[in-house]
Specification:
homodimer; 367 residues; alpha/beta; TIM Barrel; 2 domains; eight-stranded parallel barrel; three-stranded antiparallel beta sheet; 13% strand; globular
Chain lengths: 367, 367
């Protein structure tokens, strides 16, 4: 699975694997893809440095990348406390009522919330970058619009390619104008923040809109047949996130959540604002139902919702309260039915890709 | 573009074209695909016979098919008037208020509503079948679940293959159990009634669920690259509907609607219950906005909504009231940017398919 872009990056397969787990990222790179570590959960720069050291030591010299969540627009002098103050009391009460209804215990004294999306705050993301750009990254991706111009310049000085996620051709064109190198076209069926346009329609639109920039297709891709489909649509590679969540190398810290992922069908996700305030695809749970219920107060805009629910999500995860327990994941969750190692996922991907190409050759009447 | 199914049907390309226009259906069959006439708008059996005669005379002896909307469950002794009586007065008033706000004129005296979805009523669909099964149909498709067992048997007696649309693997399995021959897997991005699962995820799920029955992929397919993607996912053919709406052979009776379709982007559709009471993808208009507005009464369930809005939609179309003017269409509308003849669409499809296969061969390192 070799494209112009995979050759440029020196990887064997044009498969880009996004994951919050260093062990998965390193395994993806070892298997011949490009492991991309999600940075959003790292609030302490030291933690990120520790995990990048680990990847560096375990990637067998193969390239890897980092994914940050950095807003292009800077909001001067606004800290977490200022934002917290904007959260209405009724919403806080709704969180407590929902947790109480499901008997979710408080965190023990001294136990801190593990789940905290503060990486979207520019000062946090910049701290991550200061750490990360000391490592030999092959790719820096931004999940929230184009990165600021100075960040793109710093990456380019170090020969780091810059990618940005887009859910429409218009967004993709803005990224291209900002000077990025790769667009990740994120379809409706993808896990996490998504737009309304499905991968089948979005990929060729974005490819045409930003040509000759390379495009990675994201959303609905978990098999080699799906990778072949995405490459047929003009992508120069595929961007997979969900499929790694149930690999042996992943560490969800929750057997109950792993069980839910393995049992879920493709219809068991929902695009909801319950987690961050922006529409993000995730497992449908009693938690997303509560926020999507017209009788409730409804989610706050980003970034308020993420701050509002951070402690609650930590408590739900810590105590594995099954009806509320969820995670961002794409519709491909329906095909994640058994735990595999990362290398096994790659073997399945390449075999499925070969099968699909041979099938198309037959349909086209090629020898 | 030859699959086992296309060979069985004796067509040159595994392209199935759904259209309400006899001239488009015949042109699709002449171009080497299978033209499938949508029957839902025919209330008088004589009109359907006239148009099937026309197709028979203009298809150059190539095979063609018919698409009906027939409920599997029979509701005994319920006529249109009984159903009309269930519509609340407040909803009728909302229709009139919405039309008045946009200055939509009444139909002239003696002018009858042209738009009327009554084909979903079993007695109407059975009348269509009595007419249609006298013609040498190659395919009978049902857009609303599995057809009743006796209809499948009548079709099979005449060597007519029976297809049914499905938006999930579960629905597809029910169709297979009912004895149909082909499943049309209709993805989220498709025009008309759709589920939530995107084509990229749905196609392989349905293919695996009903194997060895052949599957046609529908939703998001308008180019040869998209056809190649769908076939890579395991489909034995592609089912296209939206793309024909702006062909030279189509007759929308509304230059304004054609202009709207040619101008619309992939983000300009919405999955709304405004037209039939079931979620159907269509152009987003002031009409869909009014029904999707939480402040309004909201759509009634099928079949009430279709009856409620029939006259209103006819008036909107008759007078081309642009803000309200819409039609079912998929996200692929963003790529329908110029009028082409049906043969030209086929030429583009086959060229794009060849390009995509050659591209995948290169990526796979094949000679």
């Amino acid at each position: 699975m070799q494209t112009e872009l995979s050759r440029r990056l020196g990887i064997e397969h044009a498969v880009f694997g996004f994951t919050p787990f260093p062990a998965v990222a390193a395994a993806i790179s070892r298997a011949g893809g490009l492991g991309v570590l999600g940075a959003v959960r790292y609030t302490a720069p030291g933690d990120l440095a520790r995990d990048l050291d680990w990847i560096q030591d375990h990637a067998d010299g193969r390239p890897y990348g980092l994914d940050v969540v950095m807003p292009a627009k800077k909001v001067e002098g606004v800290g977490e406390a200022d934002v917290e103050a904007l959260i209405p009391e009724g919403h806080r009460q709704f969180v407590e009522d929902t947790l109480a209804r499901h008997g979710v215990p408080e965190l023990a004294e001294g136990e801190t919330a593990g789940w905290r999306i503060t990486g979207w705050m520019e000062q946090v993301a910049r701290g991550q970058l200061d750490v990360a750009l000391d490592y030999p990254l092959a790719l820096l991706a931004n999940a929230l619009g184009s990165p600021p111009a100075d960040v793109i310049a710093r990456a380019h000085e170090r020969d780091v390619l810059v990618a940005a996620l887009a859910g429409s051709a218009r967004h993709a064109r803005k990224h291209a104008d900002a000077g990025i190198d790769i667009v990740v076209a994120q379809g409706y069926e993808a896990g996490g923040h998504t737009g309304e346009i499905a991968t089948m329609v979005l990929t060729p639109e974005v490819t045409e809109a930003v040509a000759p920039l390379p495009v990675l297709a994201a959303g609905g891709i978990g098999s080699g047949e799906q990778a072949a489909a995405a490459l047929a649509l003009g992508a120069q590679g595929v961007w997979l996130g969900s499929v790694w969540l149930t690999t042996a190398e992943a560490d969800l810290h929750s057997p109950a959540l792993t069980r839910k992922l393995l049992a879920a069908g493709s219809g068991d996700t929902v695009r909801s604002r319950a987690l961050t305030g922006k529409p993000a695809r995730q497992l449908r749970t009693a938690w997303t139902d509560a926020w999507d219920d017209p009788a409730g107060p409804g989610p706050l805009p980003m970034p308020l919702q993420g701050l509002l629910v951070a402690d609650a999500v930590s408590r739900i995860q810590r105590y594995e309260v099954e009806p509320l327990l969820g995670t961002p994941v794409g519709q491909i969750v329906g095909r994640m039915t058994s735990e595999r190692g990362v290398q096994e996922v790659f073997d399945d991907l390449t075999r499925g890709f070969e099968r699909a190409v041979a099938r198309l050759d037959r349909i086209a009447g090629r020898p």
